[in-house]
Amino acid sequence: MGTPGRASPTPGETPAPAGPRSSAGAGLRDPLRGIIGGRSAGSLHKAFGFETVRDLVTHYPRRYASRGELSPLAALTEGEAVTVVAEVQGVRERPMRARRGTILDVRLSDGRGSLALTFFNQPWRANELRPGVRGMFAGKVSLYRGQLQLAHPDYELFDEAEGQPSETEARRWATTPIPVYAATAAIASWRIQRAVGVVLDALGELDDPVPEEIRRRHGMPGYREALEMVHRPTSDAQWRRAREALRRIEALVLQTALLERRSESEASSSVARSAAKGGLREKFDARLPYALTADQSAVGAEIEADLARPHPMSRLLQGDVGSGKTLVAVRAMLVAAESGGQCALVVPTEVLAGQHLRSIVRLLGPDLAALLEPTLVTGALSARERRTALVRIASGRARIVIGTHALFGDAVVFDDLALVVIDEQHRFGVEQRDVLRTKGRRAPHTLVMTATPIPRTIAMTVFGDLDVSTLRTMPPGRRPVQTIAVPLAEHPRWEERIWARSAEEVAAGRQVFLVCPAIDAEPAPGGRPDDDVPDDPDHGAPPPGRATLQAGIPLLPEGEEAPGVPRSSVEQVAATARSRAELAGARIGVLHGRLPAEEKNSVMEAFAAGTIDVLVSTTVIEVGVDVPNASLMVIFDADRFGLSQLHQLRGRVGRGGAAGLCLLVTRALAETPGRLRVDAVAANADGFELARIDLELRREGDVLGADQSGRRSSLRLLRVTRDGDLIAEARADAARLLAAPGGLAAHPALGAALQDRLDDIERDFLARN
C-alpha cells in the first residue's frame, strides 16, 4: 500500500530524506533541519520554536481520532465516521463561486454505491486520485445538495503491484488510531505527523533515562519504544501505555532535578542566625496581647531551626487568609535582626507595602520600631525620601525593609542581608525574585509566603526543593466570614437590600468595602479586573476551550450574564453610593491603581483610621489589607473573579470583633461557569478546598520556567491535578537514586535527560531557587 493521502506533501513541502547516516541513527540533540529539510524545519520553528529532534518527538499528540469501521457505500449515513474501500470513477476541478480558489470533486464507487470526495484548493491531488485508482478513504460523512460526501478525507491508495489488501489489513488500517497534534493555521496536524514519522524512522537507539529496576517495577516499555507507540500506535492500548510511561519519565526527571537542587542548596553556605536568650524575639512574644496558635508556634520553631543552620533556608509558608503568616514572618525577622542582619519583605503593590509597614510598626511597638527602623522603598517615594531610605539600608540601620519591585533596583544596597521574605510569591517573576538573593554577602535565608493554599501534589512539583510549613488553625476569636451569593438575574429586587445592609453596618459604626472589577470602563470580554499591577494569573477568569472538569465546574467562555447590563466600575458604584438616601452622610472614599501613590496611601490610612466609612475599590485591597473595623464586603460582578481571588477578598472583613459578611453580587445566569464559581465560594469557607477546586479550573503554570501564568506549562504529559500518586512515586524513586552510591553520576542517561529537559531559563530557575 502507498502512503496516507492526507500526509502527501504539497509541491515544495517534501521533507528531505534522512540521507546516509551512521548505524547509530539520529539523536535527540540533532537539528531537525538535517532530517526533515529546511522548509519543514523552518515552519516548525516558526510555529513552535522547535529546533532539535527532541523538541519534535516530545510534541505529543493531544488526542487520537478513529477512522471508523469499514462500511459499504450503500450503507453510509450522514454524521458517522467511516472508512470505505472504493475505486476512483472520476475527477473534476471547478472554480469556487464566492471566493478565489478551486474545488476538486472526486467520485468513488465500490460497485454497489457511490460517494463524493471534496478538496478545497488542493488541485495537485488530481495527480494521485486518477480514475481507476483504488484505496481506502476515511472521514465524517456529510450531506451536500442531497449527495453524501467526505470533505478532505484521510486516504491510503493501494500499490498496483501489491494489489488490494486483505479485509484484515483494511480493517486494521481503519481501526488504527490517528494522532492529532496541537497545530497552527500555518502547519496542520497531518504535516506534523509526517515530520514526526520521518524523524522516528531516522532515530537511532536511545539511552533510557529510567533505570532498568524502576522500569521493571512499574512495567514500563523502554523510552524508544514509548516514543514509537505514542506517535504511531496500532491500538488505543498502545498509546495509553506509552503515555503512562512518558509521564513517569517526566515525573522522574522533574523530581530528580528538584531534589538535586535541594541537595546543592543545603550544601551551600549562609550565616547562621539564632534567637538570643531574652533577645528581640522573646521580648516581642512577651508583649503580644494574645497567645500564639499551636500552628504558629510549630512553624516558628521550624523556621528558627532553619535560620540557625549555616546553610540558606528555603521554606514555603502557606496558610489560609487570616491564619497569621505576617506574625510568623515578623518573628523570623526579629531572629535574623538580632545579629545585626537585615530583612527584606517584598510585596506586590504599594498599597500592601504601606499596609505592611504600618502593621509591622504597630506589632513591634515604639521601642523595637526605633531600634529596627522599618523602612519603606517604593517607586512612589520622593527623591528626598528615597535618598534617606537608601542611606538607612546601606548603613545597616534599617534592619527591616519593606518594598515593592523598587527593591530590585541597583541603587538598593544592603549592608548585611540576612533574610528575604517574599509575600504572594506568584506576583513576581523568577528573575525579579532572584535579584535580592544576590544582594547579601552570602546567600540569604528565604521565606516564601502564600495565602493561596497549595495542594500537596502541586507543592511537591512546583516547590519540591522547598520545605513546606502550613498554618491551618485560625487565631482565637476569628470567625468564618458568612458568604452569600446575590444573583440579581433571578432576584433584581435584592439590589435594594445590598444598599440597606451597607447602611446598617455604617450606622452601627462599622466599615464597608465595595469591590468592583473595573475603574471607569467595562473591561473587554474575558478581560481581567482592573488594578495597578498585573493580576495574579491564577486568579483571572479561566481560559476557554476545556469543556468540563473533575470538580464538576465547566470551563467555557465568559459572557453568560443577563444581557444589556454594563459592568460595575469604581466610578459608577461610587456615584451610586453617594446618591443613595440610605448612605446620606456616610463618608465614601475611592481607591484604585490609577491614583497617585500618595493619594492611595492617604485613602488607605484614612480608611484604617476610621475616617472613611465606605471604600469603593478595585482588587488593590485583595491581599494583606487589615482593617479590623471592616465588617461587610460587597463584590460586584463576582463572576468576573477567580475562586481564590474571591476567597482572598472576603478575608479582608471580619478581622475584628464584629462578624464578617461578604455579598457576592452577580448577574451571571445559573449553571454558567462564573455563577458556579460564585456558588462554590459561597458554599465553602475552606481555602485549601477552594485551592483544590481552583487548580482544577486552570493549568498548573510553568513548573520549571519563568512563566507561572497557567497559560503555558513546561509539563508535557504530566498533570499535577491527575498524577499525584505517580509524582509521589517518582519522588521516592528519585530520592533513592540520589541517596545510592554514586548518586546521579551512576545514572548518566538520567543526567543527560535532565540536561536535555531543561532549557536555559529553566536551568537558571533551578540554580536560583
Please tell me about this protein's structure:
The chain has 769 residues and is an alpha/beta fold. Helix content is 36%, strand content 16%. The strands form 4 sheets. The chain has a 7-stranded parallel sheet, with helices on both faces. It is globular.
Short characterization:
α8 (236-267) crosses α22.
Structure summary, number of beta strands: 21
Mass-distribution shape = globular
Sheet-strand content, in percent, reads 15-25%
Distance between the termini: 55 Å
- Average pLDDT value? 80
Q: What share of residues is helical?
A: 25-40%
| Main β-sheet, spatial strand arrangement | 11-12-10-13-14-9-15
Q: Which stretches are poorly predicted, pLDDT < 50 over at least 5 residues?
A: 1-23, 523-564, 699-713, 763-769
Please give the count of helices. 24
Secondary-structure class? alpha/beta
Radius of gyration (CA) equals 31 Å
Largest sheet: 7 strands, parallel
Entry keywords:
769 residues, six-stranded parallel β-sheet, seven-stranded parallel β-sheet, alpha/beta, 21 strands, single chain
SSE inventory with pairings:
Elements: H1 33-36, H2 38-48, H3 53-57, E1 63-65, E2 81-95, E3 102-109, E4 114-120, E5 134-144, E6 147-151, E7 154-157, H4 167-175, E8 178-180, H5 189-202, H6 212-218, H7 223-231, H8 236-267, H9 280-287, H10 294-307, E9 314-319, H11 325-337, E10 342-346, H12 350-372, E11 375-377, H13 383-395, E12 400-403, E13 417-423, H14 430-437, E14 445-450, H15 456-462, E15 467-471, E16 482-487, H16 494-507, E17 511-515, H17 570-579, E18 588-591, H18 597-609, E19 614-617, E20 630-635, H19 643-650, E21 661-666, H20 673-683, H21 687-696, H22 724-739, H23 748-757, H24 760-768
Parallel strand pairs: 4-6, 9-14, 9-15, 10-12, 10-13, 11-12, 13-14, 16-21, 17-19, 17-20, 18-19, 20-21
Antiparallel strand pairs: 1-8, 2-3, 2-5, 3-4, 5-6, 5-7
Helix pairs in contact: 7-8, 8-22, 8-23, 9-11, 10-11, 11-12, 12-18, 15-22, 19-20
